[in-house]
Amino acid sequence: MSDWWSYGLADLLLFSPRVYYRLFETMNTTWWVVVISAFVAGLIASGFAMRHGHRGNRVILVLLSVIWAWMSYGFLWQYYRPINWAVPYLLPGFVLQAVLLAVFAARPLPLRFGWRGDLTSAIGVGFMVCAFLIYPFVGVLEGRELVQAELFGSAPDPTALGMLGFTLMARGTWRWLLLPVPLIWCVVSAATLWVMDQQIAVVMLTAVWVTIILRLA
Question: Is the whole-model pTM more than 0.85?
Answer without folding.
Answer: yes
